[in-house]
Specification:
By secondary structure, the protein is an alpha+beta fold. It is 15% helix and 35% strand. The protein has one helix and six strands, in the order αββββββ. Strands 3, 4, 5 and 6 form a four-stranded mixed β-sheet that branches. Strands 1-2 form a two-stranded antiparallel sheet. The N and C termini lie far apart (32 Å). The relative contact order is 0.27.
Length: 99
């Protein structure tokens, strides 16, 4: 799944994952493949960080922000490029607005 650089809420981020799985993946021979190219769907991770008012990412108390979450990706369309050939991205998350 191509991760966007635009900030989203946690709920919107979850919806993006769900939409990718529903609209772009299909089961084939016991595993998921990408409908567009037939590449295998793998699981990588995204590091989620709240977005500060100045546009910077909030590292949180431990430097890892909100923390990692699992995300599906097509190994053919969006090959991993991270350390040790992993699929990892930083994703800015909008803070919930106070009601």
């Amino acid at each position: 799944m191509k991760l966007i650089n635009e900030p989203v809420t946690l709920e919107e981020f979850g919806e993006l994952i769900d939409l990718f799985e529903i609209n772009e993946c299909e089961p084939r021979d016991g595993h998921l493949v990408h409908k567009g190219c037939g590449g295998a769907i793998r699981i990588g991770f995204a590091n989620l960080f709240y977005l500060n008012p100045d546009g910077s990412l909030d590292p949180g108390d431990d430097g890892f922000g909100i923390g990692p979450t699992r995300v599906p990706y097509c190994e053919k369309c969006d090959p991993p490029t991270g350390p040790n050939y992993t699929h990892a991205h930083r994703v800015p998350i909008e803070r919930a607005k106070k009601q």
